[in-house]
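Researcher: I'm preparing a figure for a lab meeting and need a structural model of a single chain. I don't have an experimental structure, so a prediction will have to do for now. The sequence is pasted below. Please return the structure as tokens so I can convert it later.
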Amino acid sequence: MKIVVLDGHVLNPGDISWAPVERLGELVVYDETSQDEVLDRAQDCEVLLLNKFRLGEEHARALPSLKLVGLLATGYDNVDVVAFAKHKIAVCNVVAYGVDDVAQHAMALLLELCRRTSEHSQAVKSGEWSRLGSWCYWKKAPICLAGKTMGIVGYGAIGACLGRMAHAFGMRVLATSRHQKPAPDYTPFAFVPLSELLAQADVLSLHCPLTDETRALINSKTLAQMRQGAILLNTARGALVDEAACALALQSGQLGGFACDVLCQEPPKPDNPLLAAPNTLFTPHMAWATTRARQRIIDLTAENISNFFAGHPSNLVNAFAAS
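Model: Understood. Here is the structure written out token by token.
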């Protein structure tokens, strides 16, 4: 079979191996692909792999050889999965490839907001401590997490992993989930409705998928329900947050801090209101990007392809029906 990767550079700039997929057929990897190039490059392939490239009805209709679209990621909001199902093309994703990686990144963002280690390190390097002459100083008093409440929106694998980390830091953990989940073996922990989570959380961390129901979940109304001075973390999808409303909440002090790895538009426009808001921290959609996690994506993608052509598809995200 022929397997084409449309946007392989971000996943694999050369530090991991495509070998698990190469063993399954003829593999062609394009670092990047424009919208004008996709139909030509994918015309005769049976498997099309992509990360953030957008695919719609026009692609499903125009690729008669295509049998499987593989997301090199968990999120699939960039693919019209209904249109591909209509054309009897399966779409699958990879899950649980970087659970610890993303949870650790969320915790790193929180710790940086609370302790501001990089800001103080830079101040020391610039000579500020030497000029002050005092044996210690701080630009802003650090925050201790012990005794505070972590609220987790979306208690899947990553949310559960972050909950364990928060518990290890002495935090009380609350979570909300679309589906009933078993409670962890530590306390204090409780599943609560979103309204209660918003009202009680000192730190609110988003780990839910982007759907019609969760788009702009954090907006002016839900921000007003949060504790004044609470911290918001987003390592899930940028569009979960109404960025203009979040910026206003930061400026007013309703939000005490905001840290994210994702934004509505990536990279952001210079006029994104969050970039000028106080008490913010941003990373460029890199929480998932350890070499360990990226190699795991390729390994799991190879498994998805093998399973599909063996007749027992795995990780399907559309209502695929074989002809």
